[in-house]
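Annotated sample (chain length 295).
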Amino acid sequence: AAPDTRVEMALLRECLRERSRDVRAVLAVPCAGGVVAFYTPHERAPEAALGALLMAHFGHAPPPPGPSPSRERSLRARIELAALSAAPVLLHGEAHTGKRALAREVHRLGPRAEGPLVVVPRDATVEDLAGVERWEGDARERTLGLAARARGGALLIEDLAALSPAAQRWLGEAMSEGRYLPPGASETHPFEARVIACARDAPEELAAQGADPTLLERLGALTVRVPPLRERRDELPELAAQTLDTIARVWGVAPPTLSEDAVRAVITSPWEGNLRELRAVLERAWAGVGHTVTA
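Output written by the structure step:
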């Protein structure tokens, strides 16, 4: 393994050792013949235990480890840089690479962190975004839209390409003008929300697919490509530990430790399904006491 990979593995082992010093957490691993063995954090799992599961999962030996491209090692730094201003941000990359979590991190670290983070659903309409005002007799009824709810905070678009053309056009115009007119209203309202959008495709690909040009122009202020896991091998030990923490919280148990061989197997596997695949494999590898895992 490269020197930086060895450092990551050593740090992960030390972190997990400190966190689980007095916890009898277990890791369930497939062994020869499909027998499952359980190991405490103070015992060493068999050679390439998780690697055996990964080989069974992928059907072939994982590729040799390779360093992440230097430009991708700055992903965290670019997220922190994007968070510094209140400018719109577009995060793009393959499915299940963690774009939504990174979008929430941009908001958490940004100048509007104290404001609300309002999620825009895939099927949001113009009325959903802008709200609606109507008169019932002499009384005016107003339904707040997502833009008004996000005032002082941010709108999180989880899938930009899934938004209807009308919703994209409305959003681009509202961002450009800084104001918008809700359907049925007689006065405009200020648009005072940061827009953080996620998409699978890069801006030029979105444009070719017919995405609203004004919206893409506004989102072009800051764009961050989120690489797939196969290009983020230096991050995989931390991502695996975070994934195990998440699984442990859901299962209501303490997280297990990973052997050096298991960490190496995580680093060297291709993860074509990115974070979704990583979690599925880790869940299969760690079934907990009284559970059975077959390769």
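Annotation: Confidence is low (pLDDT under 50) at residues 1-49, 60-73, 289-295.
Annotation: The radius of gyration is 23 Å.
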